[in-house]
Amino acid sequence: MISYSNPNSAGALVTEGILDSMSAGILVYMALVDLIAADFLRKRMSCNFRLQILSYCLLFLGAGSMSLLAIWADASVNSILSAWFFPRGKLSGAIKGLDVVE
């Protein structure tokens, strides 16, 4: 069955995207609810307002840094793929969307 499937077909790409987003959602949920919530609900944290503000700022700084890293990694992958597979400088629709490579 694997030999007959096309990994670049629209259905395969949509399925992969849905499964990736579900696993990312589970990871974010586990991080926020099980790991970070335990740190933010401690008595030391609830008694010290300055520590709360610092902790939230650092949490958002870390989340923003990870987002920038993801954007940078995506741009790097796209530029590497376009250089390898499309040496004339055109990034085809096969990488950016679901169009057929011409």
TrEMBL record:
Q: Which GO terms describe its molecular function?
A: metal ion transmembrane transporter activity
Does the record bear Transmembrane helix in its keywords? yes
Alphabetical list of InterPro entries matching this protein: ZIP (IPR003689)
Keyword terms of this UniProt record: Membrane, Transmembrane, Transmembrane helix
A cellular component term, taken from the record's GO annotations: membrane
Q: Does the keyword Isomerase apply?
A: no
Q: Where in the cell is it found?
A: Membrane
Q: What is its main location?
A: membrane
Signal peptide range equals none
What kind of membrane protein is this, topologically?
Multi-pass membrane protein
Q: Membrane spanning segments where?
A: 53-73
Protein name, per record: Putative zinc/iron permease
Q: Which organism is it from?
A: Rosa chinensis (China rose)
